Amino acid sequence: MDIVLDVASRFLLQFQSPTLAFLMGGLIVAALGSKLEIPDSIYKFAVFVLLMRIGLKGGMEIREAELAAMVLPAIFAVVLGCGIVVLGRYTLGLLPGVKMDDALATAGLFGAVSASTLAAATILLEEDGITYEAWVPALYPFMDIPALVLAVVMANVHKVKTEGGHDTKVDVWGIIKESLQGSALSALLLGLALGLLTNPDRVFDSFYDPLFRGLLTILMLTMGMEAFARLNDLRKVAHWYAVYAAVAPLAHGLVAFGLGYIAHITTGFSPGGVILLAVLAASNSDISGPPTLRAGIPTANPSSYIGSSTGIGTPVAIAIGIPLYVALAQAVFGV
Question: Is the pTM above the cut of 0.90?
Fold first, then answer.
């Protein structure tokens, strides 16, 4: 009972963070009917800088890291991305009023990774003084790409079975290529490559690092406003999507926390790394995933998977998931 109360108290303390405050602020001003808008160009610039900063820092740290320590967390990332899609297929996909194409697109989006959620988590860890391996954000593509590929493959296999045809071919490499070419993953991978192969310390310290916190608040404010707007889209589809979007991020994150704990015991994976692995699993793609799924599963209804992700899934992952995993780690690891 004491550990539950400890987790609850630590969880509530996380809401004093400016990162979460800006997210909630965006939700509130949108609910009040405010006409406040953040230009799309500023939003895209903020996302680019955030991902480049994460990538650069990760690349610089990988140069000094023991690559063997990355193997088990990377395997767990792949298992989580694929497992979330399969779980969604046999939970959301079997509920009344839910089309299988919509269920798989939604599961694919929730199996993929949110760059903004990842950025928010790194800031909260830094604010709490919780250290983590800087290469952990590099697990992003290990979870993101397998989830999107598997969702599209399973949707096409289901289409072949239901239509009774055998001529439909799935372009797996095309899906992987499109995922890699997505703006979010491209920026992150570019930052990783530059941090690994060059010496960007000076530009990192003078430009990317100082801007990180301020731009993240703009991103959180924008996401809060968009989340409220997407709730109208979610009302057009089955209410099961709202239930899934509220429950799935927390469940996925807790499973990932358990796997991270195994990695902690076996390889010395840091408590901060365990938290970030849980956050990656709890997040749902808000940048690269939607266009990939629109192209790969054109029969799926965007109101179902984008509405559930942006309207409910992302706020739950950020406002509830991140504080929950931080509080749990503080209780379990004593950090």
Answer: no
